[in-house]
Amino acid sequence: MKFIPSDEGELFWVPKNELSDLYTSKIINLTIQHYLNNKNIDDIFVGTMMNNNESKSEIHWSTIKETAGF
């Protein structure tokens, strides 16, 4: 695959099994984990970043559903 040059840096592919080793923010890492654990689901997810009582960050995921009406 040919990449178009960019001033933002060099693009490159990362194998799925190496994604968790990337140096990223906590929210990006949790989002990658969620995708890899749910890659066969067609729903659209929305996540809310939360801190529990132990100051451990986690994301609460919800699916977007069509409303029945108002």
Give your account of this protein's structure.
With 70 residues, this protein is an alpha+beta fold. It has 1 helix and 2 strands. The protein has one helix spanning 26-37, and strands at residues 45-51, 57-63. It has a two-stranded antiparallel sheet with strand order 1-2. Strand 1 (45-51) and strand 2 form a beta hairpin. The longest helix is centred in the middle third of the chain and has 12 residues, at 26-37. The protein starts with 25 loop residues before the first helix and ends in a 7-residue tail after the last strand.
Helix content: 10-25%
Query: Which shape, going by the Cα principal axes?
Result: extended
Quote the beta fraction.
15-25%
Average pLDDT for all residues: 84
From the N-terminal CA to the C-terminal CA, the straight-line distance is 47 Å
Counting DSSP H or I runs of 4 or more residues, the number of helices is: 1
Strand order, largest beta sheet: 1-2
Low-confidence stretches: none
Number of strands: 2
Summing up helix and strand content along with how strands pair, one would put the structural category as alpha+beta
Question: What is the helix/strand order?
Answer: HEE
Please compute the radius of gyration using only Cα atoms.
Answer: 16 Å
- Largest sheet report: 2 strands, antiparallel
